[in-house]
TrEMBL record:
It comes from Mesorhizobium neociceri. Residues 74-264 form the ABC transmembrane type-1 domain. Belongs to the binding-protein-dependent transport system permease family. The keyword Zinc-finger does not apply. The chain crosses the membrane at residues 12-32, 70-97, 109-131, 143-164, 185-208, 241-264. Part of the ABC transporter complex UgpBAEC involved in sn-glycerol-3-phosphate (G3P) import. Probably responsible for the translocation of the substrate across the membrane. InterPro entries: MetI-like, MetI-like_sf. This is sn-glycerol-3-phosphate transport system permease protein UgpE. PROSITE patterns: ABC_TM1. It is a multi-pass membrane protein. It is found in: Cell inner membrane; Cell membrane. The complex is composed of two ATP-binding proteins (UgpC), two transmembrane proteins (UgpA and UgpE) and a solute-binding protein (UgpB). The lineage of its organism: Bacteria, Pseudomonadati, Pseudomonadota, Alphaproteobacteria, Hyphomicrobiales.
Amino acid sequence: MSSLSQRRLGRSVLLHLFLTPLAVIWLFPLWMMVVFSTMPDNGIFSPGIELLPHGNFVDNFNNLQRDTNFVGAIGISVAVAVTYTFFSVLLTSMAGWALARYQFFGKGAVVAIILGTITLPYAVVLIPQFIMVARDFQLANTWVALIVPPLFNSLGVLFMRQAFSMMPHDLFDAARVEGVKEWRIFLFVALPLARPMLAALAIILFLASWNNYLWPLLINSQPGAMTAPVALGTLIGLTKVSWGGIMAGAVMLTVPMLVVFVLLQRHFIAGIAAGAVK
């Protein structure tokens, strides 16, 4: 083995020795969540530390389903997240395309405003947004209120603007010379080239919608139309907290997303890397 190979092997071993404890620290709370989801409520707060699963997951899930109709809430969350992701990716891509490829008066100001909105805490716009949607537009307790207000994503617009800016101008100019209309250039030339960035953005937006708690809690007061995170929150009462049910619901919300991310991490990393290098 050459000295270069030995140095690479040594760096790899040191890197793994450093990252493995960090991975264990990060995964330990998730494992304990799985363990707690299989224990009764009185066993979760027992003095001893339990590291292996028990056999109460089905009972905890049955209690969760009885109290919240959690399966229905998951269905609503999936429908909202998929619809939100599709339209948000489309809108942010269109905005990013316009900012990357067109020259118009006030373009710099538009980009500056979009950058400025990233610095605003969500709490600043939450109450005005709620008043506008619920009082002025009378859209409370509707799917439109759940999906439409968060559609515009400033970070997604800037991310797609960077992605389209990296593409060669000559390719689009050649399509225009051939008489291809602008919307066809966007749909059939630009978007296929931006597929890795679109995949990364879609994963980020889907997870953001899937985990969204505060806005669905405010805008929707109907028990039969709750998203899954809001349904879990209803198990925390003034006098009783169903910890077993909460842990079972948290496992059902978390584990599928981890599996999806692991399966799609190649596309996610490729999209982030492609959008970050010019």
